[in-house]
Amino acid sequence: MPHAASKWKAVTTDQHRFPLQAEKEVLARVGVEIVPAACKTEDETIAACRDAHAILTASAPFNRRVIGELKEALVICRYGIGVDTVDIPAATEAGILVANVPDFCFDQVGDTAMSLILSVPRKVTYLNNLVKRGVYKRDLAVPIYNFRGATLGLVAFGNIARNVCLKAVAFGFRVIAYDPYVKPESVAQYPAKLVDFDTVLKEADIVSVHTPLTHETRHMFNEATFRKMKPTAYFINTGRGPVHDQKALTRALTEGWIAGAGLDVQEKEPVDPEDPILKLDNVVLTPHYASYTEEAYHELRVKTAENAAAVLRGEWPKYLYNPEVKAHARLTKRR
């Protein structure tokens, strides 16, 4: 027999990004069907989510204006670790729970970061492009330096950066890391030395960025910071694009302040087709795909839906990002 009409409404804002089979199966267990939508603007997000009780989202904007229009929302469930698309203070003030999936894609992003850390300084893409154009001259790769004994600087030392650290030491890297929120004793088991930001910039042969996007980290890498790096150094970003100022990075790559870059994320996504960075041979760009494998994305969809299902059962989600909301959560009033 079909389910009786549910008192709950669940909406996804990203049907264009994710198939919904896993979400449908999880939410069906609480008698809820998920309504698909494709939201890129504030107005589209408001129209789709105004009367939703649970919202599953990846890239739709949930700023203060949008959140102010969510009259029924109990929870916003973010696909992924980061919550930079959600105004957390506004959601908390409104009594809306925000849930994420903090144990997602450690290996996948770590593997992607390592692929860039290894391939960009080895100039794999550059030489591949030359060979396909009929230019078979390995001397055009000069100079290339050893990984063994080189210094890898990690900016932020959370789960993904720690994953990279363990992979990198197998190639002989010396690893240093900057993270003002990590205590040395909490990471003593990792083969990395915690240092200040300037030390990472000045000593690292490769800088790999893993910080979330916050007011503190936006344009953390700018003209001043790129100028502090070695002219032989490489910049790798698999975190969030706006952590680097793309105009400053383009200038750094063009004028030789640094040797090259590998970017899975750009300041503006998708990258503007007129962006001059696209014309540079010393940068490798990928389309914000670092977290992707079939297995990882299935797990992500299941866990995101389980966050929503828990709330619709009257429970706290497993991965509650803003626990301070509990005292005045809309969920408490609906129980």
What's the helix and strand layout?
Elements: E1 10-12, H1 21-28, E2 34-36, H2 42-49, E3 54-57, H3 64-68, E4 75-78, H4 88-93, E5 97-99, H5 106-119, H6 124-132, E6 151-155, H7 159-169, E7 174-178, E8 193-194, H8 197-203, E9 206-209, H9 223-228, E10 234-237, H10 246-255, E11 260-263, E12 283-285, H11 294-312, H12 330-334
Parallel strand pairs: 1-2, 1-3, 3-4, 4-5, 6-7, 6-9, 7-8, 9-10, 10-11, 11-12
Tally of contiguous helical segments: 12
User: Strand share of the residues?
Assistant: 5-15%
H/E series: EHEHEHEHEHHEHEEHEHEHEEHH
Tell me, what is the CATH class of the largest domain? Alpha Beta
Structure description:
This protein is α/β, with parallel strands linked by helices. It has twelve helices and twelve strands. The strands form two sheets. Strands 8-7-6-9-10-11-12 form a seven-stranded parallel sheet, with helices on both faces. Strands 2-1-3-4-5 form a five-stranded parallel sheet. Helix 1 (21-28) runs parallel beside helix 11 and helix 5 (106-119) crosses helix 7. The longest helix has 19 residues, at 294-312. The protein starts with 9 loop residues before the first strand and ends with a helix. The mean pLDDT is 96.
Concise summary:
The protein has 335 residues and is of the alpha/beta class. It has twelve helices and twelve strands. The strands form two sheets. A seven-stranded parallel beta sheet has the order 8-7-6-9-10-11-12, sandwiched between helices. Strands 2-1-3-4-5 form a five-stranded parallel beta sheet.
